[in-house]
Amino acid sequence: PHPPSPSPISNPPSFPQPPPINNTMPRRKALLIGINYYNTQHELAGCINDSHNVRDYLVRDRGFSPSPQDMVMMTDAPENRGSPFEPVGANMMAAFQWLVTGNRPGDSVFLSYSGHGGMLGFGFWCLLVYWV
């Protein structure tokens, strides 16, 4: 038998959770991801801008709060290198976990991804991310 492989999310970053809410107001959470793949042969232009535009739309038109406990934006902008907001595999898995944790009936969650993707068989899409 082989020893188990180390998990790529053995030390995932944590994202802020809001304090417990004692009323019945629905909560809105958003995870926005924009990956331009800087300095690669597959570099894109505009994916980070897409995420900023979606954030602005959600805040301005849909009543979302830009507060870090309600909205997480992950981009591969140089200032995010090495931070929990760099969209690498472990960070993205932690962010997905944040998005789906602590929700109640009536809450809204929103996921936006702008970057490379691919089609898998049977019409399923996948995100192409860096696993480091």
Could you please describe the fold and organization of this structure?
The strands form two sheets. This protein has a three-stranded parallel sheet, sandwiched between helices. A two-stranded antiparallel ribbon has the order 4-5. The chain is of the alpha/beta class. Strand 4 (117-120) and strand 5 (124-127) form a beta hairpin. The chain has two helices and five strands; from the N terminus they run βαβαβββ.
Stretches where pLDDT falls below 50 for ≥5 residues? 1-10
Strand content: 15-25%
How helical, in percent, are the residues?
A: 10-25%
In N-to-C order, the SSE pattern is EHEHEEE
Characterize the biggest β-sheet.
3 strands, parallel
End-to-end Cα distance: 26 Å
Treating each run of at least 4 consecutive H or I residues as one helix, how many helices? Answer: 2
Query: Structural class, judged by helices and strands?
Result: alpha/beta
Oligomer: single chain
Main-sheet strand order equals 2-1-3
Inertia-based shape: globular
DSSP summary, beta strand count: 5
Mean pLDDT: 81
**What does the radius of gyration come to?**
16 Å
What's the helix and strand layout?
Elements: E1 28-34, H1 47-62, E2 71-75, H2 89-100, E3 108-114, E4 117-120, E5 124-127
Parallel strand pairs: 1-2, 1-3
Antiparallel strand pairs: 4-5
Give a brief description:
This protein is of the alpha/beta class and 132 residues long. Helices cover 21% and strands 20% of the residues. The chain contains 2 helices and 5 strands, in the order βαβαβββ.
